[in-house]
Amino acid sequence: MPPDNLKIVLIAPPHPSDSLCDAWRRAISSHFPDPTDCPFEVKECRLDDLDIKFDCIMSPANSFGIMDGGFDYYLSRAFKGPSGDKWTLTEHVQSYLRDIWHGYAPPGTCTIVPLPDAVFGPGRNKHDARSLAIVPTMRVPDFVAWDLDLSYNAMWSVLVELDRWNRVSVLGGLQRINTIVMTGLGTGTGGVDFDVCARQMVLAAKHFWSPVPDVVRWNEAHKRDNEIKTARAPSSQRGPPPPY
């Protein structure tokens, strides 16, 4: 069961046909049918139009932390600070990737990075946000739908890192992350089907908050493997998503 004080807000812009938000809603109704046990909230809007407060926002980044395209472009614009330099956020994120990943965060990993001081926290950005979750879905902008479990693995990494951050926060004086904003994982340039992404993200959350057995045998492993494989099936071909 998800913790009571964690909310995952999923955002994506409107789409002329079946949207990513529609796909998330279908997946949520399948895997979290009880609204009282559901950590997800879906908002069909662009980042510029999002009007809520949150602690952390995900960047579906590239491995080098270059934040000048897609959803990252709008993050760079939102958190550029008083300098007005569009590269402020990129350079800040890259400083952490150098320290933690030797400059290259492999696809599917998650790194939580505090926002730059000038835009950190209440009163310094309109969302009162304090951190970014850097989640590369590709090395460089490219088609990545060949990676059949990309959205599942990336979502799993986000949940692991959130859990680690919040456990450490109790001991280290960090502020908990209670609300994180996420968008699609690989659904832009990466070409991942909306339904595949949605099913994998929500299934990863369901698995993550299932009881962890002390001992795992192959029957349990194969059951989970089959569920993950089932989430791979694409729904239909769509045109490119609208800009964030």
UniProtKB/TrEMBL annotation:
It comes from the Eukaryota. Residues 56-205 form the Macro-like domain. InterPro entries: Macro-like_dom, Macro_dom-like. Pfam families: Macro_2. This is Macro domain-like protein. It comes from Coniophora puteana (strain RWD-64-598) (Brown rot fungus).
